[in-house]
Amino acid sequence: MTDQQKLLIILQPNNIERKERTLLNAPINIRFYGACIACTVIDVILIFLSLLGYFYPNPFRRTPLYKQIFQKLDRFTIQFWYSITLLALTIFFFLHFVSVGGSLLSIQIRKPLIFIPQLILCLLAVLLQLLLFSVCITISIVSDDTMWGIAIFTLVLLFLFGIYLAISVFTFKQLLFECDDFKKMLANSKSVHFKEENKRKK
To answer: Which residue range forms the structural domain that includes residue 72?
Structure first.
């Protein structure tokens, strides 16, 4: 059997569909699906906590963060920026929740561009957790008040989002490779069909 005949067999619809199912069941994609489920749960929890903090701000006024930074500001300014921050966080985690679904869709339809927003938002989530962790550690060190509980919670989120970002990057690279490989296969198939037609005409 020649290479051209092998390529024609591979490019048959049934074989392409079987190949795609094999790629979707690859270990990296299985890990990504599991990470998406975990990240979705985390997003829902963070959205709930943001909304809870927005409607019930009193616990925030008892935190060291409020005492060290916001206590000297007037009440209206504090309430304004507090509300804006929590609404922004709610929207951010909701967008990340939606982008996770977009990344799963991009794998199914082989469109890498749909995957990119999820990578950007996940990177921003990691940077946000890193910033909050740094603030908690700084306040705990330079003042008598401690924020170790919030710092540990933020560190756990930083670890989880970091793992999810790493898995997402590997999955995105694999998706790019698969799409490039599939385009090459289609280009080769067109070349093979063109040569076969020329032979028949001769």
So the answer is: 30-176
Structural domain includes residue 2: no
Which pLDDT tens digit goes with each residue over 64-121?
Answer: 777 776 777 788 888 888 889 899 999 999 999 999 999 999 888 888 899 999 999 9
Tell me the per-residue pLDDT of 26-78, one tens digit each, with 9 for 90 and over.
Answer: 555 788 889 999 999 999 999 999 999 889 888 877 877 777 767 777 888 88
pTM listed for this prediction? 0.74
In a domain, 1, yes or no: no
Residue 46 lies in a domain: yes
Number of domains in the chain: 1
**98 part of a folded domain:** yes
What is the 3-state secondary structure of the chain?
CCHHHHHHHHCCHHHHHHHHHHHHCCHHHHHHHHHHHHHHHHHHHHHHHHHHHHHCCHHHHCCHHHHHHHCCCCHHHHHHHHHHHHHHHHHHHHHHHHHHHHHHHHHHHCCHHHHHHHHHHHHHHHHHHHHHHHHHHHHHHHCCCCCHHHHHHHHHHHHHHHHHHHHHHHHHHHHHHHHHHHHHHHHHHHHHHHHHHHHHHC
